[in-house]
Amino acid sequence: MNILKTLSKISLMGAFLLLTTSVFAQTNTTTQALTMGIPEVLLINAVDSTGVTAAVSLQLTTNVAGTAISGGTGASYAQVSSIVASGQTRKIQASYDQIPAGTTLDVTGDVPTSSNGDGNFGSTANTVTLSTTAQDIFTGVGSCYTGTAAKDGYRLNWKWNASTAGTYANIVATTGSTTIVTLTITAGS
Amino acid sequence: MKNFALKLTLIGLGILFVNNLSAQVAGEPISSTSNWSIYYYLDTNHPNISLTFSTPLVGEPVTTVSNSDTYIKISYYIGYFWRRWYPNGFGQITAAITSGSVPPGTTLTLVSAPCTTTNSAGDLGDPSPPITLTTSNQNIVTGIGTCYTGTGIDDGYQLTFTLKPTNYAQIVAGTYNVTVTLTLN
């Protein structure tokens, strides 16, 4: 009988503890809304190999009698910041306003390799002979940035040369002739 | 025996009733003498938070953006016996993303500052290291004991949300909405 009484007391004590051991939380969670925005970015700037905006000097000449003038080579860089919309890629195109008669201006591109940049730089076509109509130099450009230091960016290897046979007679000596090449980054694969 | 049981039950119900009267605004001190009870309340100042990358200069990346407008206010009470068992604090604040997705190519981190001291008192715990927010609960403050933070607009644990570009090729322009749920337990 005493054992039963003891067990009853223990049970009641348990019930008592249950009633008095309480965890109350009337408002223990809340929410915080965040709106995050990423703008489209579409920026391009042409610089020379020292990283400043300046003309690239190309010169055609020859020191060997009987040979055509040649040697008009140089390089510049297109520095870019790009953030694309969903499913979009971009391309970088080039065209010129005019070049001296009897000559051609070719460009070959190299995608950025500097550790100052990152992202999807796309790819480049083979050598393109420029004209007054914009042509693709780099395609498949996604979200990326090239960096802003000297030699950061899409490298543009310029080659100015006498045209193929048939137009050499049109070449005339000139100094300080300026050609403006327009680089454009635009939507499109 | 019946009288004994009746007394115990009435005492228990009485304590339960008195305890329930403690409902209050998060951040205020809790008045309780219950040795076995735990109470906790949490709220924030509910700011509108916008984390938007600025347009960079040409050749440069978008850069990290942060917001520190959110303050968590809590009230916490741990009865005497719980304090005996958990002398280093008992409660914790956790955070998790409960709707929406972080923009691709970015990470959203969260860190809490120590509780402000102007209107607070008690065992306010310690902030955890910064966390990268996911859909799983992660601690941002631990070791909370009996305490209150104050109820002023800038009282409490100041939270800093940081959006950072981490995989540039995956970044896509757009607007993204995320809900972060903060829990005190």
Provide a brief overview of the structure.
The complex is a heterodimer of chains A (189) and B (185). Chain A is mainly beta. Chain A has one helix at residues 2-20; strands at 23-27, 29-38, 41-48, 72-83, 90-96, 103-110, 118-119, 123-124, 128-129, 135-141, 144-145, 154-162, 181-187.
Low-confidence stretches of chain B: 4-23
> What does the largest sheet of chain B look like?
7 strands, antiparallel
| Overall number of structural domains of chain B | 1
Largest interface: A-B, 55 and 71 residues
Q: Which structural class do you get from the secondary structure elements of chain B?
A: mainly beta
Number of helices of chain A: 1
- Cα Rg of chain A: 35 Å
Number of strands of chain B: 12
Q: Write the CATH fold name of chain A.
A: Immunoglobulin-like
What's the helical proportion of residues of chain A? 10-25%
Kindly name the structural category of chain A: mainly beta
User: Which CATH class of chain A applies here?
Assistant: Mainly Beta
